[in-house]
Request: fold
Amino acid sequence: QVRLVESGGGLVQPGGSLRLSCAALGMFSSIGHMGWYRQAPRKQRELVARITSDGHTYHADSVKGRFTISRDNAKNTVYLEMKNLKPEDTAVYLCNGDWGLARTYWGQGTQVTVSS
Reply:
């Protein structure tokens, strides 16, 4: 009975910035292992960034130095700070959470469009 709700997507010019948020609603006080994925038209879904329950992070090579994943346990929310956005970053961004249950949980996604 966990719901993940993403927000913060939108239209931005190349070189601009956005901050995505993913709020975990339900029975948990921890965000667990959280990840941001993205899926662009005609492309496979890819892992963008991940943060573990103890705070270790991973960022895909394509976004290293530009994107930063973080969390706020008090708000039960994970963030993706995106800077120097490029047209190739255009995609639906999805939040995924793993609390050690039988399955992981997905949000519905938020659209990020980078265009002039």
The chain has a mean pLDDT of 93.
